[in-house]
Predict the 3D structure of the following.
Amino acid sequence: MSRAGHALAVIVALFSCAPALAQTGTGDIQGRVAADSGELLENATVTLTDVDTGVERKTRSDDGGRFAFVAVAAGRYQVTAEHRGFAGRRQDDIVLVPAQRLQIKLPLRRAPMPETIALTPYPPIAESARTHASAFVSETELRDLPVLGQRYLRLAELTPAVSQEATFGGLSVMNLPSYENRLVIDGFDHTSSLSGQPLGGDGPNRIPYQLSQASIEGFRLETNGAPAEVGGAAAATFDIVTRSGSNALRGSAYEFFGDRSLNGRRTIDEKNGRAKPPYRNNQFGATAGGPISRQHNFFFLSYEALRRTSTLREDRHQHDLLARTDHDYWRQHLMLRYMNQDYRGRPDDTASPSHLDTRSGAASLASAFTGSIVNEARLQYAVSRERADLPFNFFFAYPSETRRVEIGETLSWIIGGHSVKTGGNVLRDADRIQLFGSPPRTYPVDDHRYAAFVQDAWRASDALTVDIGVRYDGQDQDMPLRPPVFNPPQVYDVQNFGTAVPPAQRNWAPRVGFAWSPGERKHVFRGAYGLFYGSTPALLAAQVARFTELFISNDFKAPRVHQASAGWEVEKYRAGSFGIDYLFARGERLPRPVNVNATAPPLRRFYRRIAFQSTAESIYNGVTVHTRARVLHQLFYTMAYTVARSDETPQWSPTILRDYWQLGLPSDGSLLQTRYPGNNDRHQHLTMSAMYDTSLLAVDKHGLSKRLLKDWEYSLVYTWFTGTPYDAWVEGDLNGDIDPFNDLAPGTTWNQYRKPYQASFDPRVARRFRIGPAARLSLIWEAFNLTNRPNYTAVDNTLLQLTVPAPTQNPKFGEPTRQLNGRVMQVAARVIF
C-alpha cells in the first residue's frame, strides 16, 4: 500500500471511530428543571439558542430533572425550559467562555396558559462545577482595556499566578518556564515543536505574532489541576477562541498611532547620555462578520498590519489575516479557518533582516447525534517558515521550517449524572532547522506526538461535582542525520555516552477533582490533583547533531509536574465573585545541560562533555486572592494578588544555550542537588483592571451636561511584582572547565540576589460618537507606564574579574543594564458598526 494510501486509511479511521483531540474551546451548560414546589420535572423540553446566529439545540430533562448541552462553542446564549401545564422559563445573558461548565436552575410554575418568563438578568458568575484553578479573559477585557501593541496574551498577566518569564519574555505560570506551556487556538495546537514557544513568536510583548487581538472572542487559562482532556503541557494551557460571524453584519476598523514625541525618556538612557531612541508605531486593521445565509452560513474576516521603528536600525512590518466560515445544517456544525502571518524586519541594531511566515488551514465538524451526544472531528495543516535569525530564537535558530498535520476527534455524551468525554490526538511535525557552521547545515527532526484520554464529570448530587479521568501522552522523535563520532573517544565518559535523540516517551497522567457548592450555590469549594507531562523540543536533537560536545542521557525523560490546588469562591448578587486558592506544583525530571567533564582529570576536562539530563527539580507554593465583578454594563473590574515561593535546582533552558562556547552547568553535586530560588521566582504579584462607562450618569441629565457626561469610557490596568533573582558570576574560567561563563563567584549561592520590583500604571480614556443609525466612532488616548518608572529587567551580574596579578571586584556589579519601555503614549481611532 502506498504512503498516500496509508495516510488516507488513517484519516478515515480517525474520523469514523477513534476518539481524539480535546480542549476545543467549547464548554458545557448543565442544569435542572423543577417546579416551584421542588418537584423535579422529567421530559421537559430545553432549548439552547445562539443569540447571534439563531441556531438552536434541543434536549429533554431526565427523571432527575437534569439536562445538559455538551461541547457548546463559546458565545452568547439563551436557555429555555418548557413543560406541559407550566409556564416556560428563559435564562438570558449567558456568555459562555472556553472550557466553562455553567450550571443553571430553571424553576417552573404551574400556569393554565403557555407563557415564557425571563429569569434574573444574569446567570451565576461563580463556576460551581469547575474543580480546578482556572481563569478567563472575556471579550469586554479584550475590547476595553489598554494593551500595548494590542497583544492579547498580555491580558493573561491579570490572572492569578501568571507573570512574564525572566529569560525569554514569555508567560510563566506558577513560575514554571514558558516552554512548558501549550497554546491552543480553536482546539488546534499552535505550539512550536522546535522551541516549545507559540508558533509565530506569539507572546505578551513579542513581535512577530500570529493573531490580532481584534479577532479573539476570549480565552481560558488552565492554571492548575485541569481535567484529563487538558494536556500536552507540564505547566499551563491557553485555550483561545477566535470570533465568528452572526445573523447581523458587524465589523470594525481601527488604527493605533505612537511617536517618540509622546514617550518618556528612559532612566538608563539618561545615565548613559543617550537621547530618546526613535519610535514610530502604526498598527491598523479591520474586521467584518455576518451572514452568508441567515441561521445557516456565516463568515468572519480579520486583517491587521503593523509598522514599527524603535531603534536606529530596527524596522518591523507585519501582516496578519484570519478568515473563518461557520455552517449549520441538520445538527452539524462545520467550521473552516485560515490564518496567515507574514513578518519582515530587522529585530535590532545588530541582527540581520528576518522573514517569518506562518500559515494554517483548519476544519472541524461537530455532530450532535442527540441532545446529549456530540462528536467533534478536526483536521489542521500548518506551515511555519523562518528565513533568518529572529530574536526569540537567540543564537541557534537560523532558517527553519515546520510542516504540521494534526488530526483529532472528541466524543462527549451524558449518561444520567455523568458527563463523559473521551478523546486523543495525533500530531506529526516535520522540522527542518539550519544551525550555524562552515557551511551552515540543515538538521531534520521528525516529531510525532500522540494523546488519548477519558474523563467523567459526575454530578454526584445537586451540590457536588466529581472529576475523575486519566490521560496518555506519548512522543517520538527521529533524526535521519546522526552526530559525528567523538574524537578522541578516550576523553569522554563512554559508559554514559547517551543518545542523539530523546528516548520515546510513554506517560500516563491520572486526574481527580471535586467542586462542592451547597445551598443556593453562592459558595464553591474545590480541589484537584493531577500529573502533567511536558514534551521535548526538537531543537534539542538538532543541537546534539550540530555540536560534538553534546549528547542526551540514556535515561532522559519528559518533564513531569505534580499539580494540586484547593480553593473557595463566593458570589455576591450575581454581580461579582471573590476567591482564594492554594496552588502547588512539584516539577520532576526537568531538563538541563550539565558539563559532566567539569570535575574530571585535566585531560578529560579540556574536552567538554555536555549531557542533557532530566535531573532538575522545582517546588512552587502559592496563595492567590482574586475578585471579579460587573455592575450592569457600566462597571467592570478584576483584581488578583499572588504571594508565592518557588525553589529549584539550578537549570538553564535545554533548547537555547546562551552561546555555542557556553555549554552547560558544572557537574558539582552539591550545586546541582540543592534547591535555590527559581529563575522566575516572584514572591508577590498584584494586578488590577477596571472599566467604567459614564452612560448611566447621563440618564437624568439634560442639555450640555448630558452631552459632556455621556459616552465616556475610562479604563486602567495596574501591575506590580517583585523582581526575579540573579546570581554573581566570575568573568573567567575559575574552575578550569574551559568555560569562562559558568563559574559562580566564591562565597555566593545560586540566585542569591534580587532585581528591583517592577510596576506599571496604564490608563485609557475613550469618547464615543455616533455615526449614522448603527455605527459609532471611538477616539482613544492611552498610556503605558504613565509614571515613567524605571523597570529594570537585567543587571550587571559579574562580581569578580580574573585579572593579573590578582582578581578584582567589579564596581558596577548590580547596576541595571536593560530596561523596559519608559512612558509610552498613543492615540487611536476605532469605528464599530
